[in-house]
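Lecture notes, continued. The same structure-token format from the folding unit now serves as the input rather than the output. Read the line below as a description of shape only.
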């Protein structure tokens, strides 16, 4: 697993491009909320969150966090897409911040079942929250999946995942 202090820097312009004209603000969080307890926000929560005991740990409370949404421009890996923005620890959200984004800004998630990706850390390790919005019972509801930041799988431009990155930390 990738530790959050891992520096990985690429040429940002060749990998991602900004989607949102203006920054979006994630409201403050209390640091208590985790994915395993966010059933009112997510229709489906990956078993990976329940199988790893480190995933259900509270984090720090956070203030308002301006974020920017990007899309990938070429086939890439997690390390390349997030690494193109700077140090991973500078880009990591808390679980509560991602939950708050999905609760308050669900209109900014990909509405077509494709991924909106967030980097988060728990106990000094980086993970990816893969949020997908799908139709359930005549309404669109987000689902959350977890992946490891050091996963070497390639994301292709066909699926065009969105990346949500802290604006003030890049």
């Amino acid at each position: 697993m990738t530790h959050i202090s891992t520096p990985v820097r690429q040429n940002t312009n060749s990998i991602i491009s900004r989607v949102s004209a203006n920054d979006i603000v994630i409201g403050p969080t209390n640091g208590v909320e985790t994915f395993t307890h966010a059933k009112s926000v997510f229709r489906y929560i990956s078993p990976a969150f329940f199988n790893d005991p480190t995933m259900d740990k509270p984090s720090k409370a956070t203030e308002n966090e301006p974020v920017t949404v990007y899309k990938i421009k070429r086939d890439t890996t997690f390390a390349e897409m997030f690494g193109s923005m700077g140090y991973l620890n500078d880009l990591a959200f808390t679980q509560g911040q991602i939950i708050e984004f999905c609760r308050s800004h669900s209109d900014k998630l990909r509405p077509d079942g494709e991924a909106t990706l967030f980097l988060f850390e728990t106990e000094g390790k980086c993970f990816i929250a893969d949020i997908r919005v799908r139709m359930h019972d005549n309404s669109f509801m987000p689902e959350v999946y977890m992946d490891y930041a050091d996963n070497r799988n390639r994301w292709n431009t066909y699926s065009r995942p969105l990346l949500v990155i802290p604006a003030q930390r890049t």
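Point for the exam: Helices lie at 12-15, 47-51, 78-83, 88-91, 95-104.
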